[in-house]
Amino acid sequence: MSTQAATFELEMTRFIRAPREKVFDAFTDEAALAAWHCPRGLHVGEVATDARVGGRYRVTMVKRDGTVHGSSGTYQAIERPSFLAYTWAWDGEGDIAARTTLIEVTLTEKDGGTQLHMRHTGFPDAAIRDDHNQGWTSVFNRLVDYLDPDGPAGCVVLVGSPISPYVRALRMALAEKGVAYTLRSVAPHSPEADAIHPFGRIPAMYDGPLQFYETRAILRYIDEAFDGPDLLPTSGVTSRARAEQWYSVLDDYGYDAIVTRYILQYMFPKGSEPDRAIIDAALPDIDRVLATLDAGYGKRDFLVGNAPCIADYLAAPLLYSLAQTPEGPGLLAKYHNVQRAMQVIQARPSFAAAEAAVESDRAAANVTPLRKASAA
């Protein structure tokens, strides 16, 4: 093989917690392919297989806007349950559509599951190979969803402390989408956080080998990658801009005033008592945030439209945490729209799911509840 040919091929290895026979069948059975054979954010349309040497297959992948991407090919080798080879060609025009590539899948028993090795050869250049790398990574994430006993939780891992409002916002979003996930409780600037976030912050998220950090980016990924209710309004550009605006208000001003300059003074005082000067300086800014939110809610229960969006998922843990503080109920008492919105969002199952682990995590970290801290 020439050096150039080796440059434009793709090799990937994934461990699947499923018997080798089931993994093999997932590549040849029409019902199975319909369940997993497309990247996240798309769904499989047409599937047809004639799983024999010389037989043909066809799979189409449909974007949310209805755009269809089709591929087809011919089976070159079928050795159940260890090896499968087939050609791959995209529909349409252009260099990549006109080019037929070869996919070879080798399955090996390992650690009670299956080691999948895929070799995809024949790409005309590195850029197209790298695009397919991203696509196949996402496709194999869906294969894990389909075959792993834990479903998506075998692939989707949220990294961060359950106490964090940002982690709680992501947990609400995942619950709203109906996505099973694994929570890996990790403190900021720990080795685990440093391994995924260049600044050691939380939260972060794995989706198989894919890594994401920064809450807004993760929320956008969750929204576009998974089925379920939209996390951003779909009624137009103005509504989507408003959702981003309110998220920024909460991220830039709400978190700073409510958590950094207020709640953390009670939770982790530098001395024997919370610093009253810092707390008292934060209270007017908290009041300003609440007044701004109260006007934003108006008569609605959510910040934009008639359904929760990314801003509501961040507002929920921030306002709930504020309500648990010594001065919180008094601050909130003036703002009836905020109180009504809090009641509505806290009644959602996603809120209960996000809050379920908070108290146990506080206990594990030996953090005293806020009200008790103020009375000590």
UniProtKB/TrEMBL annotation:
Classification via Pfam families: AHSA1, GST_C, GST_N_3
One annotated Gene Ontology cellular component of this protein: cytoplasm
Keyword terms, alphabetized: Transferase
Occurrences of domain GST C-terminal (ranges): 236-370
EC number: 2.5.1.18
PROSITE patterns in the cross-refs: GST_CTER, GST_NTER
GO biological process terms held by the UniProt record: glutathione metabolic process
Protein's name in the database: glutathione transferase
